[in-house]
Amino acid sequence: MAFYQLIETQKIPASISEIWDFISSPANLKEITPAQMGFVVTGNTGTGKMYPGMIITYKVSPFLGIKLDWMTEITQVKEHEYFVDEQRIGPYALWHHQHKIEPIEGGVLMTDIVTYQPPFGVLGAIANKLLIKKQLRAIFDYRTIALERRFGKSIL
């Protein structure tokens, strides 16, 4: 069974605290997710601090408007540096997402490393080649624009 990895970086003209406060709150996920994904946080909306073991539930429509339940667990947190979410229930056979931030001159470098495995073996590998990989890139492209709207475009 094939595993895939997507690595995305973005330079953001903001402080580590501003970026951490934004990305570590599940309540902000909808703002950085394309509307056509039908993304809704249904549990643990982020009123408290993120912590290892935190469970967050969502509804998402990744394909043909079909609503799916998605549950992730925050497995690791190092405040102002990184956190990791892993799928517990959802559309992937495996989903491991590292969110890392580090200070750079003029702002923050944010790096996302998503390691995933589509379901359904060979059919999932074909779906990844034809659809999933492109859809993930489109989601991160949208997120880049959404973060630029919120924090400004990096001139770095």
Spans where pLDDT lies below 50 across 5 or more residues: none
**What string gives the helices and strands in order?**
EHEEEEEEH
Q: What is the CATH superfamily label? A: START domain
Taken from the alpha-carbon principal axes, the silhouette is: globular
Instruction: Classify the helix fraction into a percent range.
Output: 25-40%
As for the number of domains, it is 1
Strand order of the largest sheet: 1-7-6-5-4-3-2
CATH architecture level-2 label: 2-Layer Sandwich
Q: How far do the termini sit from each other?
A: 39 Å
Number of strands: 7
- Main pleated sheet: 7 strands, antiparallel
Average pLDDT level: 91
Instruction: Indicate the CATH topology.
Output: Alpha-D-Glucose-1,6-Bisphosphate, Chain A, domain 4
Query: For this structure, what is the CATH class?
Result: Alpha Beta
Question: Number of helical runs?
Answer: 2
Determine Rg (CA atoms, Å).
Answer: 15 Å
By secondary-structure content and strand pairing, the structural class works out as alpha+beta
